[in-house]
User: Which sequence fits this backbone?
């Protein structure tokens, strides 16, 4: 119980030192992997490997060329299983990330098309009403 309290105290005292590093690492990793997925228009394990490698190299760059290479390999080694796990979990849901993205794009396109067509119909009705009103005024 004493060791547990000591661990909890040290976590409270020094936890903030690691929290910003973990948050920054996760943010950069997600930005790179999402950017690659959007740019390439597909989600693959290589996107996660590249994101892990880039982030690992970035965090170990201050250690020189050896640190950069070590961070690259360490990040890639952890990016591959993380990417495989995420892709497998999305596969279990019945819809891959690519299918979800395509479906959402199609739904948004259909929604905007329906909205545009309804606005076009309103414009046509207003135009006909205006023509009828002008025609009625000319006859008087």
Assistant:
């Amino acid at each position: 119980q004493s060791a547990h309290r000591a661990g909890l105290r040290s976590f409270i005292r020094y936890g903030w030192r690691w929290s910003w590093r973990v948050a920054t690492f996760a943010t950069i990793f997600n930005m790179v992997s999402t950017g690659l997925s959007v740019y390439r228009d597909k989600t693959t394990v290589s996107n996660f490997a590249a994101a892990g490698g880039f982030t690992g190299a970035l965090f170990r760059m201050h250690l020189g060329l050896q640190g950069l290479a070590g961070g690259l390999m360490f990040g890639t080694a952890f990016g591959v299983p993380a990417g495989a796990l995420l892709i497998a979990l999305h596969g279990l849901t019945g819809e891959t990330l690519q299918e979800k993205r395509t479906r959402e794009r199609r739904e948004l396109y259909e929604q905007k098309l329906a909205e545009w067509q309804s606005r076009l119909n309103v414009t046509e009705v207003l135009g006909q009403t205006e023509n009828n009103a002008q025609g009625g005024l000319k006859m008087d």
